[in-house]
Amino acid sequence: MKRIIFVAIIGLYALGWLVTGQAYMEKPAEYNRLLAEAQRYEKNQIYTTAIEYYQQAIAIRDSLELQEQIARDYLAAGDESGFVNTCGRINEAYGYPMSTVEMLADFYEENKRTESLISLLNDALKHHGDSAELADRYASVRYTYENHYIAYEKIYTFRAGKAVCVQEGRYGLLNADGSLAIRTVNDWTGSPSDDGLLPVFREGKFYFADTNGNKKEVPMDGQNVEELGNLGSGVAPAKIDGKYGYVNSRFEPQSGFEWDGATAMQDGFAAVKKGEKWAVINSSFETVTDYIYDDVKTDENGFFAVSGRAFVRDADGFRMINGSGESIGGGGYEDVVPFVSKEPAAVEKNGLWGFVNTDGEMVIEPQYRNAGAFSEGLAPVETDDGWGYITLNNEMVIGPKFSEAKSFCQGLAPVKEEDTWTVIERNIKN
Length: 430
Hints:
Elements: H1 2-43, H2 47-60, H3 64-76, H4 80-94, H5 98-110, H6 114-127, H7 132-141, E1 145-147, E2 154-155, E3 163-167, E4 170-174, E5 180-186, E6 188-189, E7 197-202, E8 205-210, E9 215-217, E10 225-228, E11 236-240, E12 243-247, E13 261-262, E14 269-274, E15 277-282, E16 295-297, E17 310-314, E18 317-321, E19 327-333, E20 335-337, E21 345-349, E22 352-356, E23 362-368, E24 370-371, E25 378-383, E26 386-391, E27 396-402, E28 404-405, E29 412-417, E30 420-426
Antiparallel strand pairs: 1-30, 2-3, 3-4, 4-5, 6-7, 7-8, 8-9, 10-11, 11-12, 13-14, 14-15, 16-17, 17-18, 18-19, 20-21, 21-22, 22-23, 24-25, 25-26, 26-27, 28-29, 29-30
Helix pairs in contact: 1-2, 2-3, 3-4, 5-6, 6-7
């Protein structure tokens, strides 16, 4: 009896191995049949059915090659969402294989989905940081941008995320997304300070408003404000009863009113004018130079000093100074565009424009028809073909396609297309 049971058990084991072996033998056959069916449907461009067969094959044996073929079939069938989702699953499962990254990157680039392309390349570089191919591809989109498709007569350089705009001779304020923070209803609008206040002139009166256009402070009783500049370092230049001095945001006088001109205060100094000559003053409104300059250069927001540097003009032309009035580097410039940041400013010499750093060193020799200051690694320059943007290596990375252009700030730059100003925004802001 025991012998019979033992033989029966041996027989069952043998049968089990036979069934298992037969299953292993059948699986490759079934796998190959499913692949053949998938390829047959592909040949007839019946992609959805081909995908079903590939998915059944994957249930038997998964592979990167089959997953990528499914992605390609989704794309061939016009199912872009299926294609993108499949590529995403592959990247998560296989650690961003280069073949899938390239396939998805090509799709994003062809369809001008730049933000998705940038995100993909950023993630892929985390897995393939030493890939020169990915680095080159990332560099190719680094300076791409989107157009906000707004239209104004003029747009000033962005400051604190806002930009003054002009339409039909009336002034307003733009948000970073191109929407209006303040409608173009004012006779004049200044740029906002760090605490969000800006000077406004409307209906014959000056006042300070917030960035929504709400009136916040008005001149004191009996105070005849004839001109008002932008707030900087807590004070703004103002012309009262025919002379310039400085007031705070409540219009309280912070200095005497003894000058014939004054710039906005920044970095602890500003410039003031007596008669036909200019001098430099500090934040205590004391002169640190004599009245020796024929002119001073301010940016379009009225600021004289940026990054501790400023430009003054004497008989030899414009030159750079610090807050003590000491000359920095050479001089003799015919014109200048002041610093926007610590990056180089634009200077004109012998009719051509180049760039100097804060040490007064010429870092790009004069060679352009016109130029603006560097900011965020780019500077606007004018060539025979129009305005574009160069890097600090003097490489043109945004082609000369504009009729005018200004410096970037927080990834935003005003540009003029034919006779209309609009705003472009970089897809990669760093």
